[in-house]
Each structure stands twice: as C-alpha cells, then as structure tokens.
Amino acid sequence: MPVQDPLEQEKEKLQKIIAEVKEGVIIVDPEQKITLMNKSAEEITGHGLVEALGKPIWHVLTLLYNEKEVKPDTYCPVSSIKLEGIVYEKDNLTLVDKKEEIKVVNLKVQKMKDGMEMGVGCILTIEDTFAQSELERMKLDFVAMSVHVLRTPLSILKGYLSYLTKKETLQKLNETEADYLKNSVVSTDELVYLVDNLLDLTELQASGFRISPIPLDLDKAVQSVVYEFKPFADAKMLEIIYAPSLSELPLVYADATRLKIVLRNLIGNAIKFTNEGSVEIIVAQESSDFLKVTVKDTGRGIPEKNLPHLFKKFYRVKEALEMETGRGLGLYVSKEIVGSHGGKIGVESKEGVGSTFWFTIPVYKERK
C-alpha cells in the first residue's frame, strides 16, 4: 500500500474542515495561488474550485474599497518573514463576482504557524453580508410572528384571570385555591411582559434601532407612565413618588414611543423588585445638553458582581432566577433605545438597600 504524502494528508484535512464552514474560505499557497476553496466561496465568487485551482487569487477575487482596487499584496502579503495570525481584516468591501455582479463582503485573512512548510500562504474568510442580513431578517420575522401569535391568547388569558381574581370570586375559594389563582395571574403577567419586550426588541432590530425623535415634554411622559403603574404599586402597598422639578425644564428631543418603553422597564422593574418602601422617580437637568431621569427603589438590591452584566441581552441575576422572573430583555432594550438617542444609562445598587437606575436624554435645541 503506497504511503500518502504528508502534505496531501494535511490538504485533505483542511478540505474537510473548510467544507463545514458557512463562510467562504479560500486557501492560497505562498505564491498567492489557489489550492483550496469551499462551496460557500464558490457561491460567493461564482468560480468553481476546478477552474480556480492553481490560478492566482486575483483571478477569483476582484475587491474594491471606496471604489479603489484592493491588491492581493495588501490583503495576502508575500513575505519571507514568518507571519502568524490575522494579517488583514476589512468590512464592507465590494466584490465583483464572475458574472460581474456586485456583492458586499467582509474579509479576514490569516496566516498559519508553520504554514509555509505546509504550502499554505494565506487563509481567506469571506462573509457575504447580504446573505447574513437575509438570515437575520428571517430570524427576526420568525420571532416577531411567533410573539404576535402568543400575544393574543395571553391577553385573553389575562382578561379571564383578572375577572376570576375579583374579591367576590376569591371569597368562594379556599386559601390554597386562591394562592394558585394569584400565582397564575403573576405568571401570566410575567409572560405578557416578556412578550412585550420581545416585540420591542424585534421592532427595534428590524428598524436598525432607528428612532423618530420629536420635541417632547419629559415631565408629561413620566407622569403618564407613573399613572399606569400606580395600581401595581398600590397592590404591593408601595409609595410611588414623582414630584416634577421645581425649575422649568427644557423639552427633550426623543422618540415618544421608545422613551416610554424605557420608563416602563425601569419603573416596572423597581416596583417588581421592591417588597416594601418606595419607588422614587426624579427628573433633573444633567447639563445644558441632557436631562437625567433617575428611578430609585428600596428593594432587595443587586450583587456588585452582577452590575457590569445587567444590560446584556438575556442576562438575569441568579437570585432573580431563583425567586421570580428577572429583568430579562428589558434592560438590554432600554440600553439600545437610550444609546440610539445619544444618551447613557447606568445603575448603582447595594444589596439589602436598593437600586438606582438612571438614563440621560438629549435636550431639544431649535435650529437657527
């Protein structure tokens, strides 16, 4: 049985590896000639492996950036020095494929340790941004459709449960039955809250987190959200405090719908995680360019180690998971909305004392 050339063995291994990669992968030798391509690279460039094999990389890749050609020596440098790691990385390059169709791609080029000995000059990874954005759009569409389908039966269920929890109905139940019913209401409210946040997130992502700001009275926006949450605070015997600023505040420049999402998330969380005491909302002038909204509670507080992660997508504190549904998507959505306005969001908290969440929103300035 003939012994296979070690280089051929390595080549076969590489071929199997890159075949499983979803991005386009092209491997060239130290002289920039193509030795391997996967199926994705064939689809992106329009060139098949058989015709491209042994050809210079420029035969397959025509790349432009700001309408200027990107030469192979730029992204795949030929050097006697043993380079290793990423040697070139650029997003939003223009690629002209075999049919002379234009595509926008992200390109990353790496050199392997001991690649020269294996006959490997560069490994090029090409991502078709349109294909990737289409996949993301399909995911968003699926999530949005699923969430909309869930919203209607949940709203109906919430309506039925609200009817059943009326005082005259609860009086007919024993203590265990009443507790079961109350827990069902809480769980349904949590599901509705999660579904609403998923809807907010899918709408934001679908729009590219674009906003439609208008001159807005922040005081009125806060008052309307406080009014919405007063029954929830009353049910927990919490004091909800909002005293408008004594000095006249300027209008803010904000998307009214998105701003209320942030206010609902912060005020709703404060009430949810506070069992006694109060929730206080303060609006003040942060600077000549920004107003600051602060939501302060006397709740259980958040461990210091968790604070840096609170605004990450799907992050929830371990203690919240153990006791009740956590903040979930709400804070992530809030961070994205505030950021899209050019503002900042933050938190200070101490376990057993309470939490203070705040965000800034830009002041409206008339164009002269």
TrEMBL record:
<keyword id="KW-0597">Phosphoprotein</keyword>
<dbReference type="InterPro" id="IPR000014">
    <property type="entry name" value="PAS"/>
</dbReference>
<dbReference type="InterPro" id="IPR036890">
    <property type="entry name" value="HATPase_C_sf"/>
</dbReference>
<protein>
    <recommendedName>
        <fullName>histidine kinase</fullName>
        <ecNumber>2.7.13.3</ecNumber>
    </recommendedName>
</protein>
<dbReference type="InterPro" id="IPR035965">
    <property type="entry name" value="PAS-like_dom_sf"/>
</dbReference>
<keyword id="KW-0808">Transferase</keyword>
<dbReference type="InterPro" id="IPR004358">
    <property type="entry name" value="Sig_transdc_His_kin-like_C"/>
</dbReference>
<feature type="domain" description="PAS">
    <location>
        <begin position="10"/>
        <end position="67"/>
    </location>
</feature>
<dbReference type="InterPro" id="IPR003661">
    <property type="entry name" value="HisK_dim/P_dom"/>
</dbReference>
<dbReference type="InterPro" id="IPR036097">
    <property type="entry name" value="HisK_dim/P_sf"/>
</dbReference>
<dbReference type="Pfam" id="PF02518">
    <property type="entry name" value="HATPase_c"/>
</dbReference>
<dbReference type="GO" id="GO:0000155">
    <property type="term" value="F:phosphorelay sensor kinase activity"/>
</dbReference>
<dbReference type="InterPro" id="IPR003594">
    <property type="entry name" value="HATPase_dom"/>
</dbReference>
<feature type="domain" description="Histidine kinase">
    <location>
        <begin position="145"/>
        <end position="365"/>
    </location>
</feature>
<dbReference type="InterPro" id="IPR005467">
    <property type="entry name" value="His_kinase_dom"/>
</dbReference>
<dbReference type="InterPro" id="IPR050736">
    <property type="entry name" value="Sensor_HK_Regulatory"/>
</dbReference>
<keyword id="KW-0418">Kinase</keyword>
<keyword id="KW-0902">Two-component regulatory system</keyword>
<dbReference type="Pfam" id="PF00512">
    <property type="entry name" value="HisKA"/>
</dbReference>
<dbReference type="Pfam" id="PF13188">
    <property type="entry name" value="PAS_8"/>
</dbReference>
